[in-house]
Amino acid sequence: MIPGVSTRRRFKDLSEQEILALAISSEEDDGRIYRSYAEMLRADYPDTAAVFDGMAIEEDGHRQRLIDLHRARFGEVIPLIRREHVAGFYSRRPVWLIENLGLERIRDEAEAMERDAEAFYLKAAQRISDAATRKLLGDLAAAEAGHQSRAEDLEAEHLGNDARATEDRTAKRRFVLTWVQPGLAGLMDGSVSTLAPIFATAFATQDTWTTFLVGLAASVGAGISMGFTEAASDDGELSGRGSPVKRGFASGVMTTVGGLGHALPYLIPDFWTATITAFVVVFVELWAIVWIQNRYMETPFFRATFQVVLGGALVFAAGVLIGSG
Q1: Are residues 141 and 191 in the same domain?
Q2: Same domain for 152 and 38
Q3: What is the pLDDT of residues 36-88, one digit of tens each?
Q4: Which of 196, 232, 256, 288 could anchor a disulfide with 319, C-beta 3.0 to 4.6 Å?
């Protein structure tokens, strides 16, 4: 292989047999992806899993028709050619990259899979002069378009309005319990608990670099502690709160972010400029916490404001008074 030179084939250089083989391998891959989605969703979203089961069966039917056509035209031996072997051919995102992005994102990805396949075959057919090849590509495009219609029929059969609404509520609840709740707890802990040590250090020393180091240590330490505490406190099996690793990651990162928000301004050499900037950051942090509580945790706005702003103000005042004394 010559460095810098791509070894991928151009679509226009493929023979009709290779195009057919590429379609067969693509249908096989898509069927496998749909089955992976179905297994991944079956426990929590059985109706959507049934839709993906049906789509996988449809892909099997398309693949078998293509294999029968290949056998009739070219014999039993199917060339080994896959999407990654062809330059410009549409690609599929790995299942592991999609599975953590939520139910609606998986549904959207499945719809995009069918649209991409249809669009590719239509565009390819327009660039081919051979009549038999154009017909083959047109048939593949029609099959993909028909699959989209079949997918809609499967959704209507297995995923009515009530089932979809139920699954959407389940997905939202899982998102809140796995990501929002531990992340919010971390943001509150990082933002509020580090106020006293950071501002006490600031007013006691009036040294911005020392204040930054104290804030950095407090934020990172609190983040590590909160992350491990969240991950170890509940394995998620009985509570339904999801992966402890995800929850620990969300809590730890947001705790660190919450503390660093008002520690980073002390990288500014001038004490009062840094302190005023930190005041502004604290104000934004506290109102961000109020908004998240109101938006995702459905906490009444005024109650969230009273709890967060008052609590933060008391901790902030304690830090300033201790540092000034």
Answers
A1: no
A2: yes
A3: 888 888 877 787 788 888 888 888 888 888 888 788 888 899 998 888 888 76
A4: 196
Amino acid letter, residue 50: A
pTM for the full predicted model: 0.53
Q: Containing domain of residue 31, as a range?
A: 9-159
Helix (H, G, I), strand (E, B) or coil at 2: coil
Claim to verify: residue 154 and residue 228 sit in the same structural domain: no
* Residue 166 within any structural domain of the chain: no
User: Residue 120 is encoded by which pair of tokens?
Assistant: 């590719």
Cβ pair 28, 70 in contact under 8 A: no
Q: What is the DSSP string of 61-83?
A: HHHHHHHHHHHHHH-S------G
Distances (CA, A) of 128 to 93, 121, 124, 134, 135: 28, 11, 7, 6, 10
Q: Tokens 């933060």, residue?
A: 312
Query: For residue 102, what pLDDT is reported?
Result: 64
